[in-house]
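A note from the maintainers: we've had questions about how concatenated examples are separated. There is no special marker in the raw files; a new sequence line simply starts the next protein. For clarity in this README we add a label.
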Amino acid sequence: MKFIAYTVKGLEQIAAGEIENNIINSKIEELGDKFVVFNADIHDINLDKLKTIDDIGIVILQLKKPKKLIAQDLVEEVINLNLTETTAQIQNFRNLDNTFSITLSISSLRIKKLDLQNNLATLITKKYSWEYTPLNHSNFDIRLFLNRKIGFVSVKLARESLHKRKYKEYSSMGSLKPTVAAAMIFLLTDKREENVVDNFCGSGTILAEAFNLGLNIYGGDIELLNVLNTNKNLTNLSFKNSKNIKQLDATKTNWPSNYFDLVASNLPWDKQVGVESITNLYIDSLKEYQRILKPNASLCLLVHKPQILIKYAKKYFPNHKIQSTKISFTGQSPTIVLIKSF
């Protein structure tokens, strides 16, 4: 059976690796911006093991040359599908009721999305006698993923989107998407029981993802409310060591020297969290991370000024290899900078 995994732009290779490692006999068919197409048996898919993927859908139609399609063409293509067969496939995975929804992910095409959505909803309701729920996408959700080059129609496999985490009850300004946090941990290590620190923990998303993967977590934030929110979120994962999460200044902590194996942090930036000087913040936080890390430690930092960070990372971590990956989500385009020892 053919599936499509939707992910943050820039994380496609990581998502593909996760699929290959966690879904038996899966075969990657195609990678593109924000998606991975693969083949697998539906019974072999364990959604709990897929941490960097936003959603998975059963592919019910692949459109050729979507830039030449008009809205009416799309409507006819979808209406001609046998959605009853797809409901039977989904029923093998989870229960369904008599409702459906439509999700449109359309870019660079001259299509009136609202008209397309309303026309589809009307015709599907008439054909199958289903109830349309435009604000509830937890049942039978039909997703049109289109741009000028590619086009897929799929139906969501899980009831809830995979990027949602039950532990995350509290969020702070600039809170990180869990799938991005998980990808940062995957880039850092495939080991367990290492000590990882995040001195910019916010609401604790990175620490939560690291804890879920078996790492020993430490961290803090300059804002007390963020520390409290982090501990509340981590408590939902049965985290017991709340003393490891403290209020601190990331540029001058009281962590012991040469203690940590790993760093994973989403550094603040002006549009979300006020910063007097990004350059000074990068310099001072890198100096402090250098002090508290073991000589062969690795860092994974999400930043919005990668050129500045890399310049000073070379100074404070001269025996490390530096790689960068630009990603894009919710209108932001930060860069993951990976700093690993040779």
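[label: protein 2]
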Amino acid sequence: MLHRFLFQRIDNSSLIIFRIFFGILVALECYGAIFTGWIKKTLVEPSFTFNFIGLEWLQPLAGNGMYFYFFVMGTLGVCIAIGYKYRFSSIAFFILWSAVYLMQKTSYNNHYYLLVLIALIMCFLPAEKSNSVDAKQNKVIQSNSMHAYVKWIIVAQLFIVYTYASVAKMYGDWLDFGMLKLLMQNKADYYFIGGFLQQHWAHVIMGIFGILFDLLIVPALLYKPTRKVAFFLSLFFHLFNAVVFQIGIFPFLSLAFTVFFFEPETIRKIFFTKKLRYTENKIETPKNKNVLLGILGVYFVIQIFLPLRHHFITDNVLWTEEGHRLSWRMMLRSRRGSIHFRVVNKNTGKETLVKQDNYLTPKQKARVAAYPDFIWQFAQHIKKEYQKKGEEVSVYAINSKISINARPMKAFINPEIDLANTPWNHFEHNDWILTSQLTEE
């Protein structure tokens, strides 16, 4: 049973068209970052970036280096789409995109993380076997089939993403639709739909639909009687998100995934009218079956348990943010804060208030005020800046207050803790974050 489920040869049309969509979308993402000014605002203008803690050495290239970097990534996307040097192009893109993802958190989006995972998966899939430059140049690799596990890897990854996104929404601020109200407040001036987005009844529909869509869309696409309805609901949902939230390629990447749920004959009729039909459906067990199953097992165990880690960390993740990233907790909170930093020279006792504008862009400054890892990293940066001048200092976060989902501002960081000389705890609660003062859980 398991052998047939995973190792049966099936038509590969869905993988081939997804490769094309994926390549086009990542090319648009990378080229778009150049022309929209995203690179300039996020990677060029800041004097330093807030990367994932422990990777402080991973900083943007100087000068115009990041423009060239993204141009190369975009070109790799084109190569993936046409299937040229596919294996090299997909691996190179994965490495370069992962570096960008880990390099900065100021403009963090969950779909950047999803892109890392899909890019990693695509490195190992036989997506160049048909309708590619590689297949035309080397007929030996040509094939109209793939193992069934290729499809189920993508389906399983999507199921994890959507299920956790749905479950995460089942908390007070989403269920009373207050979070939807906050999300829509700055969209009142949208042409035609701006007024609609401010209505309570619209928030109720969006809130309930968001939970149910995320929870049921993968099963509904898998089940043939509901597949077409699920597809059109998916089309509406993701295009709505594209218009309202303007989140880059993510809605279109989500739609691209739907090709794995349709019959190969349907995909061929739409996209590959000249592609030969695969009809053998034989079972072909790979020689490295045990290694393959072991790797997939480890990967999906990590994917299942990583989003749960915040349950094992003291206090509410909505307050502390500890365990929030990499957990598919999407559009769940709005944070704003205020903070000052006091620097004390360890030798002279001289105290100085940090002028944050001398170090941070406006967007970085907003993140530092509201997120504990940004606060800690900025304290570390200040310490290094003073060390360059030959001074050993302590750095304290004072008057730190945050508001979660428009609640009243509450004290956030212990002002007595020297953050410059306090290590960051990756796996447990950092107790210099004050105990949660959320009035509604």
